[in-house]
């Protein structure tokens, strides 16, 4: 899946050329090039370890075996967005609604907190 490892400077130059300026980097003056995640940690290209408190994984961590297995099983069947009618999204919404007060029973699913900017 990943291309041959390239240096941080080359990756940064490609990103600046190929991605919109609206896709901002953390620490733009000297961005950290993350190459992998495991549990609650991210690792840069030099092997430095960072506690990940930002990247939407605080619940279970990166590469959690149960999440990886569930995603793999679902991807073998279907991987689509919520604009197609499919049972999984309503099954999940129904299970979630059973744990919440009735006034919190309508859902708008997003893939991250940053997705809500356009709402």
From TrEMBL:
Q: State the superkingdom.
A: Eukaryota
Among InterPro entries, the record links this protein to: Aminotrans_3, PyrdxlP-dep_Trfase, PyrdxlP-dep_Trfase_major, PyrdxlP-dep_Trfase_small
Q: Name one Pfam family in it.
A: Aminotran_3
> Keyword annotations for this protein?
Pyridoxal phosphate
Q: Which residues form a coiled coil?
A: none
Cofactor list: pyridoxal 5'-phosphate
Q: Name one GO cellular component term.
A: mitochondrion
Q: In the UniProt record, does the keyword Transcription regulation occur?
A: no
Any one Gene Ontology MF annotation carried by this entry is:
pyridoxal phosphate binding
Q: Which family does it belong to?
A: Belongs to the class-III pyridoxal-phosphate-dependent aminotransferase family.
The name this protein carries in UniProt is 5-phosphohydroxy-L-lysine phospho-lyase
Q: Which organism is it from?
A: Panthera tigris altaica
């Amino acid at each position: 899946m990943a291309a041959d490892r390239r240096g941080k400077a080359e990756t940064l130059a490609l990103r600046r050329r190929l991605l919109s300026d609206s896709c901002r980097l953390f620490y733009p003056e000297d961005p950290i090039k993350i190459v992998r995640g495991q549990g609650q940690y991210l690792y840069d290209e030099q092997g430095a370890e960072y506690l990940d408190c930002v990247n939407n994984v605080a619940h279970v961590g990166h590469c959690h075996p149960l999440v990886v297995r569930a995603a793999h099983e679902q991807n073998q069947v279907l991987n689509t967005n919520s604009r197609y009618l499919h049972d999984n999204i309503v099954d999940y919404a129904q299970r979630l609604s059973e744990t919440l007060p009735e006034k919190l029973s309508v859902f708008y699913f997003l893939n991250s907190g940053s997705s809500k900017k356009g709402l």
